Amino acid sequence: MKKILVVEDNRMMGVLVSKRLQQEAMYDVTWVQTMKDAVDLLQTEKDNFFAALLDYNLPDAPKGEIVKEVVARGIPAIVFSGLLDEEVREHVWSYKVVDYVLKEDAQSLNYILALLKKLEQNKQVKILVVDDSKFFVRFFVNLLKVQQYQTLTANSGEEALAVLEEHPDVKLVLTDYFMPKMDGLQLIQKIRKKHSREEMVVIGMSSKGEQIISARFIKNGANDFFVKQLTTTEEFYSRIAQHVEHLEYVRLIKESAIKDFLTGLYNRRYFYDAGGGLYANAKRDNVSLVCAMLDIDFFKKVNDTYGHDAGDEVLKHIASSIQKRMRKTDIVARLGGEEFCILAVNMQDEAVDMIFDGLRQAIASSPVTINNGEDTIHVTLSIGVTTVLDESLDEMVKKADTLLYEAKEGGRNRIVSDCSV
């Protein structure tokens, strides 16, 4: 459980904030009311806090002194204040804080909860900063690290391409315009040959006097553009967060089109789309292919006895168990109801029966807990497995389904296969 430090002198606000962070976000909250108490605490626990939520005006620190103390210890700090003052705002942003949030209404707390969640998610987001100026590279990297992003750097377009080759999971690239040999526009053109706008965000940057090239950046494939010296820290963070969120929305939309909403497994559509490629490859003798149909025994009885919510828990448990035992190269799909299908590539014939029977045994020996652990449900699987390609993927699935039916007729909780040993 991540620990959050709250420094707030107003008792009502301190209790409210602490309760919401604990109950809704499950954080371990330590609340103190003065700067002295906070400093005493940080002397022994400075490395234990994931983030800090700070009031700007405290009885023993009326001018934001607490911000400096917390930031100096490397703790991501969010300033939560009722002061709507431009001078105060500039003072706060002069430190490397995560954000400055006004105490206005319940929506402000909602924003903070979302902000803390983003900080956790940002640890998985890689951002590449490209600039021939070491000063600006260091400047932007330091800002991004405050928001917990992973950062990579390059001092030229050529170096940036090498970094992207090594780290294809980079989500966002910040690139300067004027660089020797390969400028920012040329770099973007090369990036876009491999990565679309929906896969990787590219933001162009320039110095004062070069903002005339903003349209050229956008036309050449950039998602956004800003002038370094004219962009505030708050605006910079907002731009980055907006683009990262957009990428995540696109990912979720794409995933929802190919994943089963309940189990997270691939759906029927993806199974036949991607499986068709594996099948064609197997037909060309490039890979071997195994098709397995799996069905939960007496699943209707589970729903009738324990209810559909319990049935959903069983489906999620089975799906998770299958995924853990299969490889990433295999396609695991929920075709509908309690029926699952697996396409496994390059599985040795002598290992096929052992692998799928091991899966069957694992399911039979791991009951599903429901009602907060008060009840358990024991379920089993029947499995039909084929390595015969037939004339199409659909025919192969039908063959595995026929073998599954034989397993059901033979008493359930068993595997029937046509694999030669």
Structure write-up:
The chain has 421 residues and is an alpha/beta fold. The protein folds into three domains: 3-120, 3-Layer(aba) Sandwich (Rossmann fold); 123-257, Response regulator (Rossmann fold, 3-Layer(aba) Sandwich); 268-417, Alpha-Beta Plaits, CATH 3.30.70. The chain has 15 helices and 17 strands. The protein starts with a strand and ends with a strand.
How is this fold's topology laid out?
Layout (H helix, E strand, L loop, with lengths): L2 E5 L3 H13 L4 E5 L2 H11 L3 E6 L10 H7 L5 E5 L4 H8 L5 E4 L3 H17 L3 E5 L3 H13 L3 E5 L2 H10 L5 E5 L7 H9 L8 E6 L7 H6 L4 E4 L5 H26 L9 H16 L5 E8 L2 H8 L1 H18 L5 E6 L2 E7 L3 H16 L3 E3 L4 E3 L3 E6 L6 H17 L5 E3 L4
Parallel strand pairs: 1-2, 1-3, 3-4, 4-5, 6-7, 6-8, 8-9, 9-10, 16-17
Antiparallel strand pairs: 11-13, 11-16, 12-13, 14-15
Helix pairs in contact: 2-3, 7-8, 12-13
Relevant CATH superfamily of the largest domain: Reverse transcriptase/Diguanylate cyclase domain
* CATH class value of the largest domain: Alpha Beta
Tally of DSSP β-strands: 17
The percentage helix is 40-55%
Number of helices: 15
Instruction: Give the amount of beta strand, in percent.
Output: 15-25%
The global form is flat
Mean pLDDT over all positions: 93
Secondary structure category: alpha/beta
Separation, N- and C-terminal Cα atoms: 49 Å
Poorly predicted regions = none
Order the strands across the largest sheet as they lie in space.
Answer: 2-1-3-4-5
Report the CATH architecture of the largest domain.
2-Layer Sandwich
Rg for CA atoms:
28 Å
> What is the total number of structural domains?
3
Largest beta sheet, briefly?
A: 5 strands, parallel
CATH topology of the largest domain: Alpha-Beta Plaits
